[in-house]
Amino acid sequence: MNEPPLSSAPRAPLLVRWLGLAAQIAVLALPVILLFRAVKSFRFNTYFLDDWVYVPLYEKAVKGGLTLHDLMAGYLEHRIPVPKILSILGVLLTKGDVTMMNWVVFASLTLSWLGVGLLLWRALRTWEKMWLPWALCGLALCSAVHWQILLWPSAIVLALPGFFLVMGVLVLGSRRLSFWPKLALTFLAACCGILSCASGLTLAILLPGVALCGYGMQDRRMAKRFFGILAAGMVIVIALYLHNLKSEVDPAFAYGQESGADTLKHSVTTLLFSNPGRGLPYFIAQLGTNLCRGINADRRAVALTIGSVVLAIYLGFLIMAWRGRKEGLLKKAAPFLALGGYSIGSAMLITLGRAWASTSFGGALNNRYSGIAAMLVVSLVGLSAILSATTPEKGGARLVRGPLMLAAGALGMLLAVNWCHGFRMMEAWQGARLRGAVDIHFSQVLGLIGHHGRDGGQLQISVAADRARTLDELGFLRRPLARDLRLNQFKREKDMSRSLGDVVSTYNRESKFYIEGYALLKSVGRPADGILVTSKPAGEPDAEPIIVDIGYSDELPAWLESNFNKDYHFIVKNLDRPQRFGEWRIDLDRARLPPGKQKIECWALDFKYGTVRRIGDGFFADGL
Predict the structure, then answer these.
(1) Which residues lie below 8 Å from residue 596, measured CB to CB, with a gap of 6+?
(2) Which of 432, 564, 375 minimizes the C-alpha distance to 151?
(3) What is the pTM of this model?
(4) How many whole angstroms separate alpha carbon 145 and alpha carbon 416?
C-alpha cells in the first residue's frame, strides 16, 4: 500500500522560530561587533592631556620606586588606584601601548551590557519579554557615542564605576552565594568603583540600598543585617578616602590649582556660594548629554530638554516602585533603580566638582560624561520592561504596552542616530590625535607648536615635551622622537595629485614667507596629519630635504557636519580662517632657512603609516 508523502508543514513553525531567534541574536550582537571594529580602527597609541599624568608612574614601575602613595595620591577630588594599576600593567605588558586602556573600556561596557541582560532575565524570566529591552540597553551602552571614553586612555576612570556597580548588583542577586561570600564580593565591587573615580562614591549608597530593598535576600531580617554591615564598611572606606584628600598632580592637569590644594572643598564652596544658579542646568544637561548627540539643533537646549524628561520619568518609576513595595515591585526594580541612581548621583558629584570651572553649563556636554548618562537610559528601559511585565496582574496591559512600544521605537531611532554620530567623531578624534602625535614627534628638535606662537590645540601643556622624552627613553612611544630634521625619516610616496593637494599661494612680507594650500590624504576627506616644509640648496636636486617648519590643517574631515558644537573642543581647529576642508597656512620665518637661495617644498605627512607625499612643485626663496 502506498503511504502518503510526509508533510513538511509541521517543520515550518520551528524553522520560523529559529530564524526569528537568529535575527534577534544578530540585532543584539550588532552594536558590540561594530563597536569592536570601530575601536580597532580608530585607536592610536598616543597621549592626550591627562594621559601624561601617568608617565612618572610608568617610569617608576620600570626603574623602581613605585609606592602605595603613588597609587593612592589625590588627583583633584579623586583617588584612582584601580585605573592606575590597570594602566601600568597594560603599558608594561605591551611595552608602551596605551591603547590597552581602550580595550579595557570596551570590555567593561560589553560586560556591563551582558550583566544587564542577566538582570533582565532575573526580573522577566522569558526571552520574549527581555530580548528587545536588552537590545536597547546594548545600543545605549555599546555605542560609538561614547567615543571619548573609548579612545581616550585616561578616560577609563569614568567607565569603571558603572561596570563595578553592575557587577555588585549581580553578586547581590546571586542565589548560589551564601551570606558572607556575597557580602565580601559586594564590598569589593563597591571599593573598586570608589577607587576608580569620585563618581564611584555613589556605590557606597546604591549597593547597600539595593540590599535593603531585599534584592537577592531570603528575608527581611537578612536584608537588614546585610545592609548594616555593608553600610558600616562603606562609612569606613569613605572616611579613609576623604582623609587628607589633596590634589597632588601638576597644576597643568588640575585646572591650574597648585599641588596640595583642597580641590573638593574649593569645588563645593565655589559652586554653592559663588554661583549657585549654575549648578541646576549643569546637572540636568549631563543626564541628556548622551542622547543629544547627532541632532541638528542647539545641543544645550536639547540636552536640557532630554535631561529633564528622563529625570522626571525616573522619579515617576521610583514612586511607582515604592508604592508597589508590598507586592514586591520595589525588590524587583531595585537593580535598575540603582543604575539610574548612579547616573543621577554622579551628575550631582560632577556638578560640584566641575561646574565652577566652566563659564556656562556647556561643560556638562563634554563627551566623557556620556557613558555615565547612558546608565540612566538602561535604567529606564529595564524599569519599563518590568512595569510592562507586571501590568497584566492589575489589568490595562494594552494601555501600558502600546505607549511603551512606541517609546521603544523612538528611543531605538535616537540611539541609532547617536551611534552614527559617535562613529564619525571616532574618526575625527583619531585625526586630531595623529596631529598631536606629530607635534610630540618633533618636540625635541622644533619644540611644541604651541610653544612658538601658534595654536597647538591639545598640546599646550608645558610638561608634555619632558614626559615625551621620558617615554622615549623607556621605549614606550609608537615611533621614537625625531633626533634630526631630515625628511628621509619618512617613506616618500608619489607626489600628491592636484585634486587632493596643492600650494595655492606664497608671498613674502618682511621676514616671513606665507604659504597657503590644501591637502587631503584621501578623497573622502581625511586631512594630512602634518604639513612639512623643507628646504635644500637651489641647484642641488639630489640634496636631502631638511624640515624647517611644520603646519597643520585646520579642518575636520569633509563629511563631518558643521554644527558639532561641544565636540570641537577636542579637534585642532582655528575658527579665524575660512572653513574649507584640508586648508592650511604656514608662516615660515626666513631665519629658519639656511643662507642663500633655497628650494622650498611642502609635504603631506601620513603619520599613521610614516609616509610623505609632495604637495605641488615647490618654489624658491632666499634665506636670511
Answers:
(1) 537, 538, 622, 623
(2) 432
(3) 0.89
(4) 10
Residue-wise DSSP of 488-538:
GGSEE-SPPPTTTEEEEEEEEETTEEEEEEEEBSSTT-PBPSEEEEEEEET
Distance CA(286)–CA(349), nearest Å, equals 11
Mean pLDDT is lowest, of 248-257, 322-331, 433-442, for 248-257
Q: Which residues share a beta bridge with 603?
A: 532, 614
- H-helix or E-strand containing 589? strand 583-589
**Nearest alpha carbon to residue 585 among 507, 480, 490, 499:** 507
Higher pLDDT, 412 or 363: 412
pLDDT digits (tens, 9 = 90+) for 366-398: 888 999 999 999 999 999 999 888 765 545 556
Determine whether 505 is exposed, middle or buried from the number of CB atoms within 10 Å of its CB (0-12, 13-18, 19+): exposed
pLDDT (tens digit, 9 = 90+) per residue, 155-189?
999 999 999 999 999 999 998 999 999 999 999 99
Show the cell assigned to 277.
Answer: 544658579
pLDDT at 570 over 60: no
Note whether 603 and 487 are within 8 A (CB): yes
The CA-CA-CA angle for residues 107, 379, 424, to 5°, reads: 50
Find the angle CA(574)-CA(369)-CA(55) to the nearest 5 degrees.
75
- For residues 40 and 372, give the distance between their C-alpha atoms in angstroms, rounded to a whole number: 23
What is the model's pLDDT at position 389?
A: 84
Q: Which of 433, 391, 378, 470 is nearest to 607 (CA)?
A: 433
